[in-house]
Amino acid sequence: SGNYYNQGEIRKKELEQSCCVLGIPASDVTVIDHRDLPDNPAVEWDTQLLATLVLKHIEAKNINLVVTFDAGGVSGHANHVSLHTAVRYTSLGASLGWDRVRCRVLMLESVNLFRKYISFLDVLISCLLPRDALFILTEEETEQAKRAMRCHRSQLLWFRHLYLLFSRYLVVNSLRLL
Asked: Which family is this sequence assigned to (predicted)?
């Protein structure tokens, strides 16, 4: 629920506002508030528990495509890495029930610090490197993504302002199939 610094309720509202900016209806937003899944950049989540919750959501919403982090978690955040591990575990483990759902998984590519902060210049590099999917946002889409990020006021620390200005992820995203 984003309760790091005891801001869970604030961050839930910010998420809903951000999704609204992106055109995602509140009915499609699920916030998991589980005591064994604390919002903490140093805590790795239990793979089996998270995999079960993810699969349950995929089945309930009839989802056919999941976009998640790769093993680097984009920023190395332990919760992001845990999510990748759980989705990988789920998709590779028929015993959990993945064989019941027809769902593909794309992983957002983590890039080095230099590439992460060269904004639109990374489009050239990304076009030359191997990947399964490449999304290049228009100027309007980039501005929409920035408006959505600004909804997360409680998380807009100084380094996230730099992210809004220079991050390639607001312009270009390369993904790989799991």
From this structure: Belongs to the PIGL family.
